[in-house]
């Protein structure tokens, strides 16, 4: 029998919370080996997800049935008031968000950095809840379109509602158990671009682009709150990500002062994004405040790009080249708009927004790469020949 002994560094040993004779599970994921300190923990998570789904499914059946009996409803449609779509979305979103929140708060000690803070956990819960709401609404839209005009008795419909709510609850709990940095960034991108696209598609004004990009958040459109809320909430998610990254990198005055300056600039940029939504581009005082904040946002991004070589000396030359190229694109687009009048105001704002946000996402990935080095350990494997015991 060949026995292989792995020598764990003390820091890794303590980080995993290991004790003598602990059982470990090593899994090969895309040629990367992942160590799980407690194989039974995954099974416990799976059991909780199933149990929560069954419990919420049964509760949804009882609530839906009780509602139909109270309303003296005999048959239930797929859409409209007191319908399959309405009740499923309400109950599915509620139980899904509760399950996600309980899961996230329960395992907050396993999360790293500032994500553990209650305000950040709450922000993530709202973000994932909104995504879950949209997904569930789209799914119900497809079902109601495929079976247009269908009506069922209250018992059958209550059972169907319970099934959908159980599925939603299970999905949200599983997502909560697997929250990672990459997924949080994906949520940020989905929230920002999804909200902006939805504002474009549903603003009720076909000629909105003849005004400016920020027109989507003004009182002149029926759903300007979607655009403004998107910016405010995206800023909160971005601040959550920054708190996690810079806490991991020890970006403080006494730690790494250059990263601390970058942290301040990046945080002010995130606050500016939220402030643009907080002060919509309505005529009067809000218009001036909105424009000043927008200009400040672009200036902050340009300052970070100009200083990134000194604030982030470990950045690769490829990232520096891309950074300077995007900065050049911002300057050229400004010249095409303000000097040559080639670009419209809307086109200029959308290009500037796209360039700036692209660079911020790239910077987040660079910072993530630096933060991940904190989790890299060197281990030694020894092979000892021992006689077989028969």
Total DSSP helices: 11
Helix content: 55-70%
Task: List the strand order in the largest sheet.
Answer: 1-6
Instruction: Give the percentage of residues in beta strands.
Output: 5-15%
What is the average of the pLDDT values? 81
Low-confidence runs (pLDDT<50, min 5 residues)?
A: none
β-strand number: 6
Euclidean distance between termini CA atoms: 10 Å
Radius of gyration: 26 Å
**Looking at the structure, what is the overall shape?**
flat
Major β-sheet profile: 2 strands, antiparallel
Structural class, judged by helices and strands? Answer: mainly alpha
H/E element sequence: EHEEHEHHEHHHHHHHE
Keywords: Membrane, Transmembrane, Transmembrane helix
Protein name: DUF998 domain-containing protein
Transmembrane segments: 49-69, 89-106, 118-142, 154-175, 187-206, 226-247, 259-280, 292-312, 319-337, 343-364
Describe this structure in words.
Among the domains are: 2-40, no CATH class; 205-375, no CATH class. The protein has 11 helices and 6 strands. The strands form 3 sheets. It has a two-stranded antiparallel sheet with strand order 1-6. Strand 2 (25-29) and strand 3 form a beta hairpin. Helices cover 67% and strands 7% of the residues. The chain is flat. It is mainly α and 390 residues long.
